[in-house]
Amino acid sequence: MHKIIIAGYRGIKGHPIVFNGNLMAELLSISEEKHGLKELVEKYKYDTLVVETNYPGVVLDLDTIIDLIRIKTIVLKQSHVYRSSCLTIFIVISLFSISMRTSGAP
Shortest CA distance to 4 belongs to which of 54, 35, 34, 46? Predict the structure, then answer.
């Protein structure tokens, strides 16, 4: 069994990243000073399975409001079928983001 499984699109690693339960202690001890999860993914790069998908959304970063706006722009340029499903996801993410800001969450 692999220690890490990562979704990919056209050879690019994305999200989600699934970690084996045996890595729990290491996951709990990560720090952003050491690049957080990136360090752990690098450490186990030879024990990682990348699962190729047909969904380009797995490689989109969504860490900031600027990322959200960038993704919205990309989605609006996509085909109608893809666009409608992505817009639904965008709306859910937007509502979640707004609720996090109004609740005082970091």
Answer: 46
Whether the model pTM is above 0.70: no
Q: Return the HEC string of 1-63.
A: CCCEEEEEECCEEEEEEEECHHHHHHHHCCCHHHCHHHHHHHHCHHHEEEEECCCHHHHCCCC
CA dist., res. 105 & res. 21, Å (int): 27
Contact 7, 15 (CB under 8 A): yes
Cα distance between residue 61 and residue 71, in whole Å? 8
What residues are paired with 8 via a beta bridge?
A: 13, 52
- The mean pLDDT value for 26-37 works out to 82
